[in-house]
Amino acid sequence: MPVSQNEPPSPVAGQLQRISTGQLLEALDKTQRPQLQAWYEPGTDLCYYETALKAAGEANTRLMAAQFSDSEKALLSQNLDPGVIVKYFERQQESITLIHQQREANPKLIHRARRLGIGFVKVAMALDPIISIVIPSSPEYAIPYGCLKLIFKFVLDNASDRQEEILDHLMALSEILSTMSFQNDMEPTGPMKKLMATIYVHVLDFLERLIEYTNLSSWGRLQKALQSKARKDYKFGERLKQINDFTTQLASLAQKSIEAMEAETFHLTKLTAAGMRLYLLSRESGSATSSSITILERNISDLYQATQLWTRSQASANAYNLLDILLPGENDIQDELDLWDGVTFRLSLGDYWERNGILEEFSLWGENRNVPFLAIGPYGSKDSWVTNFSLDLISLLRSQKQLTTFALCDRPDVNKPWSPTRLMKQLVGQLLEQNPMLMLQEPQIFNTRNFQNAKEMPQVWRIFKKIAAKMDSLFIVIDRIDRCEGEDTMDISIGDDLLRMLSDLVTLHEGKIKLIVTSAEQPPVELCEELRLYTVINTQAPQRRRIWESDDDASSGTQSLVDD
Predict the structure, then answer these.
(1) CA separation for the pair 206, 157 (Å, rounded)
(2) Structural domain includes residue 74
C-alpha cells in the first residue's frame, strides 16, 4: 500500500526513528503543560510547595559546593530552559554519533548513542510539567534539568559500562511522569498541590542519586565512602515504584476533583441574583477583616523572626564566652582552616591520596563504619600525604553540610605539641562553636562552672560525650595523631585512653559517629589493638596493607597482624 504524502513513513522494524530538534520542540509544546494560574498562585500556594522549594535550594547548595569542575557546575546552573535542554541533548547525540561514524565504529555503538540522546530528551520532556508549575516562583526549581545534564556527562566520561542500566532507570522515570494528566478544566486542590510537591522532591532526589552513582571520579568515590548507610542503600527500582505510587494517588485525587467540580457546577446554576448580591456584600465587609488578619500575621511573623535572631545571637555570645574559658586565645574553625590554607606539601605525584591506593581502602571502610579508620602514611625525605588527605576530607565534609569536628595535631610550633586532653578540648570547642543553641537546650551541661572545671581528660570527655550523643550525625577527623606528644597532668595515653574511649563511642552509637584518624608514624601496638583495623600506605616503598583481625581460633581471644 503506498504511503500518503501527508503521512510520515513508518520506521523500519528494529531501527531507531530519527527525530529532529524541530519535531522534539513541537512535541514539547504539545506536552500536557498544566495551567500555571491553577496550579500555583503566587502568595497563596507557597505553603503547598514549600517542601519542593526547600529541596531545590538544598540540592543547589549541595551540588554547587561539591568537588565538581567549573564546567560541570555550569551544566548544573546554566541554560536550563526546556527548549534549550532538548537542543543540548540532540547536539550531544549528533556529536557522539559523528565520532563513532568517523571511527567506523560498530553500528550498535551508533544506535546506542542515538538511543541515549533521545532517551534523555524524553526524560526532559517528562520533567517539564512538574517543573513548569513552580519555575515562575523561583529559578532554583529548574535544578532537575541541570542534574540531567550532569548525569549525561558522567555517563559518557566515567560510567559507560553502566549506560544501559542508567538509561533504563531514566526511561522508566519518564514513562511514570508521562502518565500524569493535567486537564485544562481541572481545579487542583490543596492536597493535589502538596502531592505534586512531593513528586518533585522524590524525582529530584532520584536524579541526585544518579549523579552520585555515575560520578566515578576520585572525589566522587571519596564522597560515596563518607555517605551514611541509609543514603548508600538507595535502590532505584524501589524509588521508581514509590514515585509511581505518588502519580497514581495524584490521578485519583484529580478524578475526585473533577467529580466535585461537576457537582459544584450543578449547584451553582441554582444560585439566584439575591445570592450573588449577598456574596458581594459579604466580600466587601470581610475585606477589612481580612486585611487586619494579614497585618496581624505579618507582625507575628516579624516578631518570631526577631526573637529567633536575638536568641541565637545571645546563644552565640554565651558559647564564645565558654570557648574562651576552655581554649583561651585559640583559633576558631575558620582561623584554623586559614592557618593551613597556605601550607604547601612536598609530595610526589604518586603520594597524593587520589593515586596512592588509600581511596580503595577508604571505600571498603565505608561499607561498615562501626569501627574507626586509621590511615598510616610513612614518609622519607618529603612530607607525609596524610595531612593533605585530611584537609581535603574536612573540606568535602563541610561542603556537604556534614557536622564535622577535627584536630590537626602537627602544630606550627613544634615546641608546644598538643596533649590528648588538649586535642579533646579542640573537638569540644568546634562542636560548641557550630551548635551554640546547645547553650539554651542543655544549660546543666553548658555552663561556666563545668567549663572552668574542664581541665583534665575526665571532665572534658564527659562534656564531649554528652554533646556527641545529641548529634544526629558526626564525623571526627584527627590528623597526625603521632604528633599528639604533649604531656597531661594525668597519665593519659593515646591508644589505651583517648582512642579507646573514642572507639567505644563509635561502637555505642552504631554508625551515627564516624572516626577517621591519620598518622605518619608506625603506630604502637596498643593503638592497633584499640582500632582493630588500619591501613598502611607507604608511598616511599612498595605498598603494604595491614589489617588487625582475630585469629581463626576464636576461643583464644588473641589477635594478630596479617600482611596482604
Answers:
(1) 20
(2) yes
* Grid cell in block for residue 234: 538507595
Q: What is the pLDDT of residues 140-176, one digit of tens each?
A: 888 999 999 999 888 887 766 778 888 889 999 989 9
Task: Give the whole-angstrom CA distance, residue 280 versus residue 294.
Answer: 20
Residue 271 lies in a domain: no
Indicate if 232 and 334 belong to the same structural domain: no
Which has more pLDDT, 286 or 353?
353
* Neighbour-count burial of 418, counting CB atoms closer than 10 A to its CB (0-12 exposed, 13-18 middle, 19+ buried): buried
Q: What is the CATH number of the domain that holds 337?
A: 3.40.50.300
Q: How many independent structural domains does the chain possess?
A: 2
Distances, alpha carbon 131 to alpha carbons 141, 291, 316, 553, in Å: 6, 32, 39, 61
Kindly give the residue spans of alpha helices, DSSP state H, lying in 327-447: 333-341, 358-366, 386-399, 420-434, 438-441
CA distances to 80, 118, 162, 365, 434 from 31, rounded to whole Å, are 17, 16, 30, 47, 47
pLDDT at 205: 92
Residue 479 vs residue 187, higher pLDDT:
479
Interatomic CA distance for residues 333 and 445, integer angstroms: 22
